[in-house]
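Newbie here. two chains, one complex. Structure please?
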Amino acid sequence: MRRRPLLPLLLVAPAALLFLVFFVAPLVTLAINSFYDYSRMRGIIEVFTLKNYQRLWLDEYYLAIIGRTFRLSGTVSLVTLLVGYPIALYLIVATPRAKSIVIAMILSPLLVSVIVRTFGWAVIMGKNGLVEQAFAAIGIPDIAFLHTEAAVVVGLVNVLTPFMVLAIATSLQSMDPSVPLAATSLGAGPWDLLRRVLLPLSLPGITAGLLIVFGLSSASFVTPAVLGGSQFKVLSVIMYQQAVVLQNWPFAAAVAVTLMVIVLVVQGIQHRVSERGGPQAMIP
Amino acid sequence: MIPDRMRRWLGIYAAVICVLSVLPVLVIVVESFTASEYVVFPPKGFSLRWYQAAAQRRDFIDSAILSLTVGIVASLVATVLGTLVALAMVRHRFWGRQVLQSLFMAPLSLPGIIFGLALLQFLAHHAIPRDMTAVILGHVVITTPFAIRFITVALGGIPPQLEQAAQSLGADSWAVFRKVTLPLIRPGFMASLVFAFILSFDDVAVALFLTTPSSVTLPVRIYVYIDQNYDPLITAVSAVVVMAAALALVVMERVAGIGRLFGLR
């Protein structure tokens, strides 16, 4: 096989061509468009300008949106860690049967479209939903939970918990099982075991999980758009509005490039921090 | 290694989170059988009226057919391309291999909405119509990395002696591939098809930007609908999507096992 150097190139050629035309070229177009001007009457004006970036990075209105995007992603990452860590811990102590059930239940929602899962939360938290009825039962009527930042956090934590669990479980699994055993036999209680043995040893997984979830939530669109309502604006939502509703493609492109830089920087940190790379992020 | 009491609490906690994680999907499926005019949970009464209503909506039927077509074509193309790439990557060392590897994995790092917007602006710039083909091409790009990974794993599991034996017995490269390699990577090939189909069938972010009135995929149709309406009709449509995913899940568990695909054993 090695005598034919052309064969591997022929094998990769179709995919490489497709990726160059329909992946690389579109990103180049996007980057170029972000430096173009726009007018409502004439559409895209092909002259170089930094206007879009100045507007996005210097205007207080948009700075607040960037800030909100970071705050949301940070909150979601931390809550996902709190929710996911005990699950990952359970996976290393559970019986094989319990383990496979938990894995299946945690991972199977990934196979359902994010729009359906998000809509499910809208039904739970919306009008006549479970949350409203639960609060009414304890004497607090007319609670408005849908279309708040908390609702978006709940939805995103639900969507992203599997990624956190996978990241932490992989790092806990690579731990020598005799280490926690030694700690317990030397008299460490559950709390000491967690704080002084398990947490430090799973730190690479925790870091990877936090960064993966941060990256995924900063670019999530469906969940903030549906659960946050029309008043809740993060970068992805204004990108969509600028592109589709207002047709200002250059500005939308500048938002997209900014978002892409945020995501790539987060991923860069993640790869640097975790030597083994951790489980690759999958974009839902 | 972990005290029994702690293990028990962890078990209870895991059960609660498991229920919460499937709760939104469960709520949709249960709610879709409601007999009421409006969304209320728990549902009032039992009926199939919203399924009947959904079946009479031409726009939803068209979207379902479109999504199925896009999913089938995109997963086939991605899996074939992925197989070719994986064969080259696993069996050969060649110039530019590392660069290509990074290129093929790059879509994993790029959020769907950014890729969708980029594709929209690219197609418009070159005056290429946005139609079903555009959505298919977009989905091929986002699913090919997974196809490459699935087939690479499958190829890694084949002892090289098998192919060498076939070769030394006089089979040419094509015969080795067709008679030895292909049957052995069949589970990976099938898993790749199913997984790519699900990714394509579920996608909102990319398709959202490529949508024209004549090409609205089902998830995008749901998104647009719940943006303006709130009634049980859409829970019935969503429940159908869930059942499609459940079916795919069963198929995938049969051919590959879910945990193994995610590197958890």
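Moderator note: Residues 277-284 of chain A have pLDDT under 50 and may be disordered. The first strand of chain A starts at residue 36 and ends at 39. Thread marked as resolved.
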